[in-house]
From TrEMBL:
Helicase ATP-binding domain sequence ranges: 30-206
Keyword Methyltransferase in record: no
Organism: Rhodoblastus acidophilus
Protein name stated in the entry: DEAD/DEAH box helicase
PANTHER family: ATP-DEPENDENT RNA HELICASE DBPA, ATP-DEPENDENT RNA HELICASE RHLE-RELATED
SUPFAM superfamilies (UniProt xref): P-loop containing nucleoside triphosphate hydrolases
């Protein structure tokens, strides 16, 4: 479908943005059988949905006119799940309808509601907002829906998951029955189907098969990493790929805040995008990424929902994604609009099986590898320095005079060395990493997990705590993992004696374990190398019976009755 088939004002805007052809979802919504009808659209994020429903609504808003008429009330309403997505949608619609004289007003939580009410009173053709704030303006009679010709719900499934069902039903119930309803949803759960059935009339279902093609532009990599070196591995990945923009995903606000601080300390221009930030702080982060002042965004899943940064070349999953949807949502931030992108998952040993299951469900086939080391990164740096634009840009007379002066004073070799040092200083130093000591199973091979109690190349360590101090495996095991930095598969047999405990651990972990146990802290518990328990020690050790509790503890978990 050519641009000549859409209103001239919008066609000119698309041409100015470099659109030669329309994307599949945009073409599908302009089909003859979709004209004027309610639509239920399944299309992937990054497929051009915003422009698609903008083009679809254009006929309802413009009619035969080249400019949008002033109706005294909004003619279109777009509802989005988050502030970021709403602001992003508004930005797209502004340039799309600019030549048609379109006035776009946003109404989102976290912004000044009085300023929004003034903007609505001044007149708007299209209002874009989040459900809660839109409902508030309707209830206060600041938002008049009587002239609505079209309503678009972007990411309807996400809005229902976030608990906005009641707000959506209120808004749609307040809109004229004659309006068109365009419902966009990546999936079609029962809630979305019920919403469509209640508020749409004879809706046409449009499914755009584009997921496989979109994800073909994403190269997946599974990087084996020691769990204590997640941050170091992230540093080296940023240095190795060196893309214009990177998004690093964490599962919690605390983790994202800590990682952003760590990256800033290492010398990266990193911003934060998490639910704890106010709208002004989020806007500053997004603007810094868009204008190039920041190149790394550390984000949580909810905060990054719907953000579109075209220059994202790398996505790093510092924390493992919860499910397939999270994996695809995160990875979908890169490889957009025909550009290539890389999605890297950091896989600690204990996540190996879960990672294989997730990849199988998602039907992605990553390249398994270790994180890049300083040697690989240094090799790339040398190539980057040799190809730096500074060598190919023509200098002026002053630069040439200064260069000759420096050559006379210091000679060519020292000048070249100084330039190389100056150019290399732009990048943070790479980190030394340990081999995590595991590898994925070969294709077709089933790798059985090593059971606790059967580690290879083991040693025994002694802890100065025993039955007299009520030592029990149920708190010793977590303590060894937390304080000593071990994984459960690193720990073999645990033998508790009267005044000490002997623990079998993987020999490769022994040195780091002993150092960790000696560090000061409330849970400090000195440990030392020892020999394996003798038969005599084991025979003398009392055998606890099933249901036994530590001395003095009641068996049924209740307090002892007073005598």
């Amino acid at each position: 479908m050519s641009l000549s088939q859409i209103p001239p004002a919008l066609a000119h805007a698309l041409e100015a943005r470099g659109y030669a052809t329309l994307t599949p979802v945009q073409q599908a919504m302009l089909r003859r059988d979709a004209e004027g009808r309610d639509l239920v659209v399944s299309a992937q994020t990054g497929s051009g949905k915003t422009v698609a429903f903008g083009l679809s609504m254009a006929g309802d808003l413009l009619g035969d006119s080249e400019t949008l008429p002033d109706l005294g009330a909004p003619a279109a309403l777009v509802i989005a799940p988050t502030r970021e997505l709403a602001l992003q949608v508004a930005g797209e619609l502004k340039w799309l309808f600019a030549q048609a004289g379109g006035r776009i007003v946003t109404c989102v939580g976290g912004m000044n509601p009085q300023m929004e009410r003034r903007a609505l009173a001044a007149g708007a053709h299209i209002v874009v907002g989040t459900p809660g704030r839109l409902r508030d303006h309707i209830e206060r009679r600041a938002l008049d829906l009587s002239k609505l010709a079209a309503v678009a719900l972007d990411e309807a499934d996400e809005m229902l998951d976030m608990g906005f069902r009641e707000d959506l039903e209120f808004i749609l119930g307040a809109a004229p029955e004659s309006r068109r309803t365009l419902l966009f949803s990546a999936t079609m759960p029962k809630g979305v189907a019920a919403l469509a059935q209640k508020f749409q009339r004879n809706a046409l279902r449009i499914e755009v098969a584009g997921e496989a093609r979109a994800h073909a532009d994403i190269e997946y990599r599974a990087v084996r990493v020691d769990p204590r070196e997640i941050e170091k591995a992230t540093v080296n990945l940023l240095r190795y790929f060196d893309p214009p923009t990177t998004i690093v995903f964490c599962n919690t606000r605390e983790a994202s805040r800590h990682l952003q601080s760590t990256l800033q300390e290492r010398g990266f221009s990193a911003v934060l995008l998490s639910g704890e930030l106010g709208q002004h702080e989020r806007n500053l982060s997004m603007q810094a990424l868009r204008d190039g002042r920041a190149r790394v965004c550390v984000a949580t899943d909810v905060a990054a929902r719907g953000i579109d940064l075209p220059s994202v070349g790398l996505v790093v999953h510092a924390d493992f994604p919860h499910d397939v949807e999270a994996l695809k949502h995160r990875s979908g931030r890169t490889g957009r609009a025909g550009r290539k992108g890389v999605s890297v998952l950091l896989i600690p040993p204990k996540m190996n099986r879960r990672a294989e299951s997730l990849f199988s469900q998602a039907q992605v086939f990553p390249l398994w590898q270790l994180a890049p080391g300083p040697e690989e990164i240094a090799k790339l740096d040398r190539a980057r320095i040799a190809e730096d634009p500074v060598f190919f840009e023509a200098g002026g007379e002053e630069e040439a005079e200064l260069a000759n002066s420096l050559l006379e004073q210091h000679g060519a070799e020292k000048c070249a060395a100084a330039l190389a040092k100056f150019l290399a200083a732009r990048w943070p130093a790479a980190e030394e990493l340990k081999d995590p000591g595991f590898a994925p199973p070969a294709k077709g091979e089933r790798k059985e997990p090593r059971k606790r109690g059967e580690p290879t190349d083991t040693v025994w360590v002694r802890l100065a705590v025993g039955r007299s101090q009520r030592a029990e495996p149920k708190w010793i095991l977590p303590m060894l993992c937390k304080k000593g930095g071990l994984h459960r598969e690193d720990i073999g047999a645990i033998r508790i004696f009267q005044d000490e405990t002997k623990v079998e651990i993987a020999g490769a972990r022994a040195e780091d374990f002993l150092k960790a146990m000696r560090r000061p802290g409330p849970d400090k518990l000195p440990a030392e190398m020892t020999s394996a328990p003798t038969d005599q020690e084991l025979r003398a050790r009392p055998k606890p019976r099933f249901g036994d509790k530590p001395d003095g503890a009641p068996r049924d978990g209740k307090k002892k009755p007073k005598a």
